[in-house]
Specification:
The protein is of the alpha/beta class. Helix content is 46%, strand content 9%.
């Protein structure tokens, strides 16, 4: 495309983006403050717009002979672990955004990547030395990831019609990162998601430039629909096994001595005692009880009776800001990286 080409029209550009799952209102929130739609009238401006789409949405954009905007929305190397009723295209928006924000985060990360051990027992020992507890908890695992140069980000802002992922593990030029998409503020729920995504990394599922998107992780979802007949692939089984070995301190059936409970307060109390005995996060035991007995209502109440903790998402934000040097980015990219995670509000 050159200055003599038919200029890109504002309407056609935003129509192409809408067809790819990005409504105009969402795009305009992510554009830098200096952008003006009149820039579409020049080839330089149109190419700048394509560059912005790549940097902020992970989209590969080009222009047709008649000036139309062509969108390649499928991130290269992406693999989707999705529900049977979800199309891969419905998760491409989240995947592209995850890639875009990760590239910026890796660029300004303070810590170089040092691969953690893939042995859950040894990894647990390292986490316990970090968090000072007798069990693996969400904040301890989060701190371990950042200490090894594995950024953990949170994707908050998505177009309304887009499918939200639970978690995402990816590698950019051999540098791994994790993006959490699960909106729960509860530490026990985010603990399993984070451990599962770290499992994908340490089990070697990504390669140098791989992207793996988990739409649904049944260990933290308030339903048993599809789980009994769900045929997980080998990678998902390996990531689950890694996460459970890490969190459950090697206990295959930690609830064997608990049995049924009659109230949420009893469940919270029993989980606290059993967690201390076995070295397992009590919140994880509560969620495990919910899954085993399909009793999510009681489990949710029991989590409320557990000792209060700051929002898990706020904790992610704190470790993010401590783990990166935002000054390495332009002011507009700093603003973007914070706002896409909901940390700049």
């Amino acid at each position: 495309m050159d200055d003599a080409s038919i200029p890109v029209t504002i309407k056609s550009a935003f129509s192409s983006l809408k067809a790819a799952g990005y409504p105009r209102s969402y795009i305009e929130k992510l554009l830098p403050d200096w952008w003006d739609n009149s820039l579409f009238k020049t080839s330089a401006g149109a190419l700048q717009f394509a560059l912005i789409l790549k940097q902020r949405l992970g989209l590969e954009a080009s222009f047709g002979l008649e000036g139309q905007l062509l969108i390649q929305s499928d991130p290269r190397g992406a693999r989707f672990k999705r529900r049977s009723g979800t199309k891969e295209s419905e998760l491409c928006v989240a995947a592209g955004l995850g890639v875009a924000m990760t590239k910026l985060a890796l660029f300004c990360s303070k810590t170089t990547y040092t691969p953690p051990t893939c042995n859950p027992t040894l990894l647990r020992e390292e986490i316990l030395s970090i968090n000072g507890n007798n069990h693996v908890d969400f904040e301890g695992l989060l701190k371990l990831c950042w200490s090894h140069g594995i950024p953990v980000l949170y994707l908050k802002d998505l177009p309304r019609a887009s499918k939200r992922m639970t978690g995402m593990a990816l590698s950019v030029d051999g540098r791994p990162a994790i993006v959490l998409g699960f909106s729960s503020t509860q530490h026990p729920r985010q603990l399993f998601v984070l451990a599962h995504e770290l499992g994908h990394i340490l089990c070697g599922h990504l390669g140098k430039d791989g992207i793996l998107i988990d739409e649904d992780i049944v260990e933290v979802t308030d339903t048993l629909i599809e789980t009994n007949n769900q045929r997980k692939d080998t990678e998902e089984r390996e990531a689950d096994a890694f996460a459970l070995a890490l969190i459950r301190n090697g206990h295959q059936d930690p609830l064997s001595s608990m049995g049924r409970v009659g109230s949420a307060t009893a469940l919270a109390a029993k989980a606290a005692v059993l967690g201390q005995e076995l070295g397992i996060d009590p919140g994880h035991l509560i969620l495990s009880y919910a899954k085993d007995h399909n009793d999510w209502a009681r489990a949710n109440q029991a989590l409320e009776y557990s000792p209060s903790q700051p929002s898990a998402i706020n904790v992610v934000g704190r470790y993010f800001q401590d783990g990166v040097s935002l000054d390495a980015l332009s002011l507009e990219n700093q603003k973007y990286l914070l706002s896409i995670q909901g940390f700049g509000e």
